[in-house]
Amino acid sequence: MQRGLPQKRGIRDVRKVVAVSSAKGGVGKSTIAVNLALSFARNGHRTGILDADIFGPSIPTLLNLSGEPRLSSNNQLVPLSNYGVKSMSMGYLIPEASPVAWRGLMVMKALQQLLHEVDWGGLDILVLDLPPGTGDVQLTITQQVNLDGAIIISTPQDLSLKDAIKGVNLFQKVSVPLLGLVSNMSAFICPACSSSHPIFGSPAHISEMCREHQLRLLGEIPLHPSICEDADRGKPTVVAEPESERAKKFEEIATAVGKLVGL
Ligand SMILES: Nc1ncnc2c1ncn2[C@@H]1O[C@H](COP(=O)(O)OP(=O)(O)OP(=O)(O)O)[C@@H](O)[C@H]1O
Ligand SMILES: [Mg+2]
């Protein structure tokens, strides 16, 4: 009998898998994951996004999608698509306002289904939107899935950076390549006068942390009201205002990530 951890395996029909992560909640993982996925799609890559947040799925809202997925002839979940990106989320499988009140085993079962029972139909890249923390879901994904890399999201605040370091250590421990860090809400850009205010602390905190942990700084996304509004109305910035400076920042990060994983 084979012992130890299960072997890592790829996700069927998917060339590259990239996880967007942070041990801290609410720092913009889902917002950045979806805008990166949309940027990959705009660059002509067949793209999917997998919402690995079982308790608080965000992708249905961010992509303005709902409804139960169909099953394919081989009993696999068929992803729902919008703006050229395929997606799968626990949010499609349970009614919107129902809380998922599950213990570990049920969560693991749902995660297995999301990871291995979706008919992606051929993707160049799949973005994984991870839940906050360094618990069961993160461990299962890092130990079972062949990840091409992880992107860490943090604000420049010390409180957030401390948690980001936990995420960095987790990926290092399980030998997942760290592609770099995205500094989110790096500064507030006043929509009236375009002046920049570092609400969550100096950008120097981020560069210091990157230096210390030998992390690449992939880019800085400003704190801007329209990033939040675009997300809420289910039309993320990259598709809502593709010509904006903000959308261009997402595009630049996606291009850098694409190069790093050999897309
Ligand atoms: N750069 C930004 N500018 C303005 N608002 C932002 C920005 N990034 C994220 N937000 C907003 O911050 C909130 C949290 O973002 P999001 O849900 O993406 O974070 P998260 O890290 O995925 O959270 P969770 O840990 O709960 O999964 C949302 O309301 C989102 O619209
Ligand atoms: Mg999220």
TrEMBL record:
Pfam family, one: ParA
Gene3D superfamilies to which the protein is assigned, alphabetical: P-loop containing nucleotide triphosphate hydrolases (3.40.50.300)
Natural source organism: Lepidopterella palustris CBS 459.81
Protein name: Nucleotide binding protein-like protein
Nucleotide-binding listed as a keyword: yes
Keyword Metal-binding among UniProt keywords: yes
Keywords associated with the record: ATP-binding, Iron, Iron-sulfur, Metal-binding, Nucleotide-binding
Family membership: Belongs to the Mrp/NBP35 ATP-binding proteins family.
An example Gene Ontology biological process: iron-sulfur cluster assembly
GO cellular component: mitochondrion
InterPro entries in the record: Mrp/NBP35_ATP-bd (IPR019591), NUBPL-like (IPR044304), P-loop_NTPase (IPR027417), YlxH/NBP35 (IPR033756)
PANTHER family linked to this entry: IRON-SULFUR PROTEIN NUBPL
GO molecular function: 4 iron, 4 sulfur cluster binding; ATP binding; ATP-dependent FeS chaperone activity; metal ion binding
